[in-house]
Here is the input.
Amino acid sequence: MNKKRILVVDNEQYIQEVAKICLETVAGWQVMTASSGKEGIDKAQADQPDAILLDVMMPEMDGIATFEKLQANLVTKEIPVILLTAKIQASDRRRYSQLGIVSAIAKPFDPLELANQVATALGWSLEE
Here is the structure.
């Protein structure tokens, strides 16, 4: 049984740590972190995670620009992306969906629900 590998890309250290602890504890997944869009792209290319949790609001390269670069790269194009965002109106959800983003999880998220939200969005079971 292969452990799922998740890459969390967020410029806030606290969010990275909370997400990492929750996903590892609740789901038993292996979690890697990145603090910027560029670092996230580099890690996604090198490590080929099973999914990426991507913050929308980041300095330099925001989540949407990061997602577009991931999509433009043959190596990372097939990795499903879930956005972590405070902006989650219906119009935002539609735009994200049109771009090819799997789902969006509202920030602040409930740490105990995060693994479940990710698994549901990706069609995974938490036993995987």
Observations:
- The chain has a mean pLDDT of 94.
